Amino acid sequence: MVENTFNNPLYFENRELSWLEFNQRVLDEAKNSDNPLFERLKFMSIVSSNLDEFIMVRLASLKEQLNVGINKPDIAGLTQKQQIKKISARTHKLVDEQYSHYKRSIVPLLKTKGINLIHTKDLNEKQKNYLEEYFTEVIYPVLTPLAVDSSRPFPLILNKSLNLAILIKRNGEEVFATVQVPAVLSRFIEIPNNGSKHTDFILLEDVMKLFMQRLFVGFKVICTYPYRITRNADLTIDEEDTQDLLIEIEKSVKKRKWGEAIRLEVAYDMDERLVNILKESLSINNKDIYYINGPLDLTFLMKLYDLKGFNHLKYDKYNPSTPLDLLGEEDIFEVIRRKDVFLHHPYESFAPVVSLVKRAARDDKVLAIKQTLYRVSGESPIIKALAEAAESGKQVTVLVELKARFDEENNIQWARRLEKSGCHVIYGLVGLKTHCKITLIVRMEEDGIRRYVHLGTGNYNDITAKLYTDMGILTCNEKIGADTSAVFNTLSGYSEPPKLNKLTMAPIGLRKKFMMLIEREESNAILGKKAKIIVKMNSICDPGIMKTLYKASSAGVEIELIVRGICGVIPCIEGVSDNITVRSIVGRYLEHSRIFYFYNDKDEEIYLSSADWMPRNLNRRVELMFPIEDQRIKQRIIDILGIMLKDNVKAKIKNGEGEYLKINKKGKKVINSQEYFSRFAQNIMKEYTVEKEHDIFIPIKKNHK
User: Fold this and answer.
1) Calpha distance 495→393 (Å, rounded)
2) Given this model, what pLDDT does residue 497 score?
3) Residue 491 and residue 401 in contact, taking contact as beta carbons nearer than 8 Å
């Protein structure tokens, strides 16, 4: 019998098509009538935003490869050319479904809730007069119409900007013109409606179309239609020959605005003459033109979501609770000295992480703070605390990852601000992104130097920590502290890759560690022992890991994968993946934690990590995986995984054809894992509050004669 090497392309799903199916699951949430209406708007906006990034990066990369002659089959057997063709077909279908639902369901539902998105044909005379005044005073001064003729070439159109294509005529000659819809103005404009209970809005581009003739005095405006282009935004930087990475990335970010046009979106009924002009001027193929039956760029719905007075159409506000391990505690350093602290965001607050850095910045006993920053918020309290620590004379070292895609400009600003404060700012290792999430605080205490460490699965971003599910620990474990120092020395200097005690680091040993852990379960299964793996992550598409999982599955290892997005693994293949299940959870919060469970012949092991099972994480990024050794925390994470595996509301199961299907709830207890964890955290807080109230000593008053 020939041993299965698991190289058959039919065993794998293409990475890009798998991602598009994830975006379909996001769209399904926009269509889900169980979700509040304004949350459905948000999901609809996220679909568009996700697709923009996918086209700017993934599709653009495939086209670049094809342009330089690369057309090799991937692990699923698809060449670049075949992938582009399939992506185009799937994306067109996805967009058509998105807009069909927007027009047929979302817009009518908004109207029933008092929000009316109206067209110019529905305006009454009073509203037209109001808009004409608004156009004159607010819109007109901002506009810059650009005509194209023999002396004026086709202008550079900004990436993702919304524009109007206009056909004008004078003396029998037709001329093309374009004007950008100004992003500095609100996309939707409220207009008076004679005291009606509902609120009328009109889109900015529709107002511009209504008064377009004002921009072309002496010409006849034949027609006006919106269009939008998406450009290649995948930065290519030769780090080896770069003297100053910060300056080089600044230059590249600017080029992103003017990369090759990858997609053209136009109004579904755009005049064919305008389509041809845009197509020729932008060098766009027919398959890359999207005819949109509705407003272009639905990301504006996120702004509509922020309208005041509609909280009843959103999820109930959730206030993260104090982490279970910190309830009733005041001195965070004392708590960490006593025990490891587990953090489960966003159900439990991210505030303790911020507070730890703030406290360290002001603590006279703290000598040094070291931290990696990948994505931070606009007004990051952590950045302020690090700057304060440096200004007070502490040794502060910050690794700012300049190559965090689409956060480059933000991170450059933070890097410069931190440098001005006196921080040592480093930009990581050549050729690698630093993606690990780690903080080290060095403190002089009565019994000597002690190192306090935070390790997490998510970014040091106080905003996304309320929206993403992540996990982390606070510890002063000596071996982890020593490992953390070694990692920072490697990142900041010329230290050889360290031999670590507890942590595992990519790209040095993380792949090897994962392989060993999977193969150990396989060996146990071959010996007839129970063998089980549970993994929760964002994406899995690494060929080596997937083949190792198939080998383990065929040996009898039970493997349960909870994968939010890309999943190249196909379950239910006879003799290959019979023992593998794949599910995806898409809900109110973005699933972001990476958890790894191995049964290990009853001696269960749990690891958390910043890494997914993707080639980029294991080969081209600095990632960390850390063990959970505190039995109390280990059991809590095992319980969390158990709840996720029982989710039958927001989870979908992948079948052998690659489809994600709803779970039949008939006869089963209904479990929404995200709601469960929210309730759990809140109930713990309530129980603690009640206990504290009962602890209050109330003296008994006695009557004395």
Assistant:
1) 25
2) 73
3) no
Catalytic sites, residue numbers: 435
Beta bridge partners of 290: 265
pTM: 0.91
> Tokens standing for 185?
């103005």
Angle of helix 15-31 versus helix 80-101 axis, rounded to 10: 0
CA nearest to 52, candidates 130, 136, 161, 135: 161
pLDDT at residue 430 is higher than 80: no
Peptide bond into 346 cis (omega under 30): yes
- E strand segments, 306-463: 341-345, 366-373, 395-400, 424-426, 433-434, 437-445, 448-456
SS3 call for 288:
helix
CA distances from 119 to 106, 202, 205 (A): 16, 7, 11
Q: Which residue carries 């990335």 as its tokens?
A: 249
Q: How far apart are CA 261 and CA 448, in angstroms?
A: 60
Q: What percent of the chain has pLDDT over 90?
A: 77
What is the average pLDDT value for the chain, to the nearest integer?
A: 91
Phi and psi, residue 579, nearest 5°: -100, 15
43 touches 26 (CB < 8 A): yes
Digit-coded pLDDT (tens) for 54-87: 999 999 999 988 888 999 999 999 999 999 999 9
26-62 residues labelled b (16+ CB within 10 A) or e (exposed): bbbbbbeeebbbbbbbbbbbbbbbbbbebbbbbbbbb
Query: Is residue 323 within a helix (H) or strand (E), and if so which, with residue range?
Result: none
Peptide bond into 507 cis (omega under 30): yes
Confidence of residue 242 (pLDDT cuts 50, 70, 90): very low
